[in-house]
Design brief:
The chain contains six helices and six strands; from the N terminus they run H-E-E-H-E-E-H-H-E-E-H-H. By secondary structure, it is mainly alpha-helical.
Length: 208
């Protein structure tokens, strides 16, 4: 074995010779704390020795702040034992922190939202917005709209009852009774798109 090798006992002896830093921290002006944010404020000026390295001095100052914060936490906060381990309960924060983003501006009301507010119409619940309904005839859940939706029921029926006068008008226009539902859906989509564009123009006018 080489003479330069160190044994565990020698390593522990070297470690034991390192002086332990004091637990108490004395400052001319005491720290102020916000334990809810784990914050320690040191109002004392930095007295740095220009002839000594900077990093060790800053490390000592940071160590004093961390030690004083730990002391304050252990003396001021309640400590309890839980199945997960020892729990230290922090108080509510006292220091207001600035927002990263500006406060969002309220969205401009649409015509419908204004009308609903005047009439006292409540928005639909999550259950009401679901695109599902129970079909008692088949005993299954199906879509209200969309692919194979209930609003398209009867479009593919082999026989459809029609009124003679209404069918004659359709024939004059080159239309059929099977296209009535699809035309109605297309008109509804176009009407909703017009309303959306109108609301967008109104909102742009308010921003200006």
């Amino acid at each position: 074995m080489s003479d330069a090798a160190t044994t565990p006992a020698a390593a522990s002896a070297v470690a034991s010779t390192k002086p332990k830093l004091p637990v108490t921290v004395d400052k001319p002006t005491p720290y102020t704390f916000d334990l809810g944010l784990l914050l320690a404020n040191d109002p004392n000026p930095l007295n740095l020795d220009k002839s000594s390295p900077l990093e060790p001095q800053l490390a000592n100052i940071a160590r004093d702040g961390a030690q004083s914060l730990i002391n304050q936490l252990l003396s001021a906060c309640p400590i309890s034992s839980t199945p997960a381990g020892v729990l230290l309960s922090l108080p509510p924060p006292q220091t207001p922190l600035p927002r990263e983003k500006p406060v969002p501006k309220p969205k401009a009301e649409t015509k419908w939202s204004q009308f609903a507010k005047r009439r006292g119409i409540a928005p639909k619940t999550r259950e009401q917005r679901r695109n599902l309904q129970y079909d008692e005839a088949t005993g299954e859940w199906g879509r209200k709209w969309g692919y194979k939706g209930a609003n398209k029921a009867g479009e593919d029926a082999p026989i459809i009852e029609v009124k003679k006068a209404a069918e004659e008008k359709r024939m004059e226009k080159g239309q059929s009774v099977r296209g009535d539902k699809r035309r109605e859906i297309r008109e509804r989509v176009k009407r909703n798109e017009r309303k959306m564009r109108s609301n967008a123009r109104r909102e742009d006018g308010r921003k200006k």
